Amino acid sequence: MNDNKPYKPIFRWRPTWEDQPQDFTAKPPQRKTTTMRMFWELGPNGGGRWSWVVNDWKKVAEGYAETHLEAARKAETAFFEFLKQPEE
User: Fold this and answer.
1) Per-residue pLDDT tens for 38-58?
2) Contact yes or no for 39/72 (Cβ under 8 A)
3) What stretch of H or E contains 60?
4) β partners of residue 63
5) How do the domains of the chain map onto residue ranges?
6) Which residues of 29-62 are buried (b: 16+ CB within 10 A; e: fewer)?
7) Distance (Å, rounded) from C-alpha 49 to C-alpha 72?
């Protein structure tokens, strides 16, 4: 992987709501029950960060990132790791 190139998301991330320009969701075609979301979250001291989450019938993974591309990469990586796990 070339660190000089920005991450290109695998899935199509769409706005979650029209009036929230920094809130996106993706629905991977490999698993219809999974939803991924990333959104800008303001901190108590005025700073902010990107929050991301992967949900299926349970919460799969969640975390934070400095950029929206990093949030997309982390969510997509967590989704593919989830696919490798045996069904419960």
Assistant:
1) 999 988 787 899 999 999 999
2) no
3) strand 59-65
4) 52
5) 14-84
6) eeeeebbbbbbeeeeeeeeebbbbbbeeeeebbe
7) 13
Q: Which residues contact 1 (CB under 8 A, 6 or more apart)?
A: none
Enter the tokens of residue 2.
């070339």
- CB count within 10 Å of CB 28 equals 20
d(CA 35, CA 23): 13
Q: Which residue has the tokens 């979250």?
A: 41
pLDDT in tens, 55-81: 999 999 999 999 999 999 999 999 999
Contact between 73 and 7 (Cβ < 8 Å) = yes
What values do phi and psi take at 82, rounded to 5? Answer: -60, -40
Encoded tokens for 79: 């989704």
CA angle 74, 80, 86 (to 5 degrees): 135
